[in-house]
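The data are passed on as follows:
___
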Amino acid sequence: MSKIKKGDVVGRLSYGKDILFTVEQIINSRDGMQIAILKGVTVRVEADAPIDDLELVKKQDVEKSLRNLELKLEKNIKKYDNKLKLSFNIFKNAKEKRSIEKIVTGTILHLDGDKKYADKSAKYYKKVGLKAIIKHIPEYKQSQMVTPLLDRYKPDILIITGHDGMIKNNTKYTDIYNYRNSRYFVNTVQEARRWSNNRNDLVIFAGACQSFYEAIMSAGANFASSPARILIDFMDPLVIAQKVATTEDYKYIKIEDISSELRDGTKGVGGTGASGKKTVIFL
């Protein structure tokens, strides 16, 4: 068996190699066993596994997985373009005698613990024409950085994400320390709410795979993952951001209005809702 090293893409044999992971770090446990710290290639999950439980994934399989992710991004971009064109045509027909209009969508501040996902998110926001500031910040540093960034950019929507996961699956659901990064997401939401305590002025999504949903919501988020402690899709935080940013400010968005666009609906993401952030200015 080839030696596993940092940067390799692997699968866990004990799980049937169901998820592709990148090896972020290899550490030695107290009993001398080598443990790999893993991050999902196409899902926002963090895990660990003994080196002996890992197998390198063939290059063509990695390329196929990444190609599927790109296709998913492109599909959402095309879907959004079609909706925008239809919305504009209806609006133009109804208001053709009015002066020229300017559509302003909400500003997004997106903090991401994963650099590759941050880069892909930036590409997505740009292609769909949304105003977004994306920062790659490790989960444990996000609470320290969020207030200065909020002061600087004054966003309408704050996305706090990266990777997460339960250490002991199916047990200790109410123990914040049984989650790899949920406590950092909770701390970051709390800091953001000190900056703005109004849930309609600043709309917050926070979390990643298997995150402590109830704790994040109690901290002040409008939307969070993961009510059913399942994996969430890379796209889920982007879908939330896009929906809020492009919905008219006189409309209130419930999670039921978004669930069909999320990979696993309300099992993956829940929330109390928020007002849209799109406004139309007549010039």
